[in-house]
């Protein structure tokens, strides 16, 4: 009997090597490769703790960026285990691991050769020699050492979140005490008032019902004692794919954005609605293919989602996994508004590209801020979000160093690296400290007040320069004081 053999390929830089390779190396590279071998429905890999195995995709890196079919082997699982036991005490002991010349790829190449008499791709084997002597290699070495070694610690789980407190008073409890979610509570535009909302819908019976639903929500926003007028049948408005125009979609997002902020109990009812309209909002099919219109609608959806995440941050409902909003599609909207190259709108060959405006970016950063506070944010989502936020802080243009955007950005990064300490190594590797120092200098030189979207009245408003200084100083302190923990 023959058994399939696959090489799993991961990028330890999470796309940053591709973005920054030319800057640091003077040449384009696709990634910093980690590999493993999958055979007999197990994933085998090597790191600082020796040879380990787990179910395929079970390391903290989760799913690989590619799976390379290497052929078949006749070696049984029992014979393979005996062979690996010998390797574990001879050629591939944990203490012999060296990041650049005796690493996971060395092991994968050896094991693939034993199983199939083939070698793994040359672009993987040749990369260490190209990277080791460069500024990028030197900068990434602590982060990659820690992450590579850590793969063996708990291979069946993802990134471990930090304990409630650490030795330097950077804790989840302190974050929840000092910082609050961001809310968008600006009044409704005049054309979405209850007496004018019908103008967005035509006069046939089906649309008349929807217009009545929208008018009832607008009325409830003005008169909070009319909350009983909003029933589960009104939630169908959130099925944006069933609406006819962009104006209708924008009006619905604006109505629910302000309604749940004014009437928080409405959010609980919507999260428990068996039809799940709110749960599917971020995946809605939109009634337009024009990129600029789609961006505006995603921004409006993001403000509604921002309020949803903010209000559910410390609620008992947050402990019930069935009531959580799925964050994967929310993350897509967030990164789309931040102009992430892998999340941009797909363009028709004849269509003009959508331009991400400053207001889109600000809303995207606010959504990132509230996502970073979500207790159910997964390790995969945290990795993708953090790596791109660090990229924005260090590489992007000066617009991200304007006060309100910089503070949202720094807060989100701070929340994430405290919750997932291994991600702090990437911040150090890309010299985020230099960016923080520049921001501190700007805050010191500019005493102007930062005005944020107003918050729910039960949440204290922190919008002065001292709070701006606090978050940047705390992030810089965390990266500096905890730097000694890196491998």
UniProtKB/TrEMBL annotation:
Keywords for this protein: Hydrolase, Protease
PPPDE domain: residues covered: 3-145
GO MF annotation, one: peptidase activity
SMART domains: DUF862
InterPro entries: PPPDE_dom, PPPDE_sf
GO BP, sorted A to Z: protein modification by small protein removal; proteolysis
Family indicated by similarity: Belongs to the DeSI family.
PANTHER family: DESUMOYLATING ISOPEPTIDASE (PTHR12378), DESUMOYLATING ISOPEPTIDASE 1 (PTHR12378:SF7)
Protein name stated in the entry: PPPDE domain-containing protein
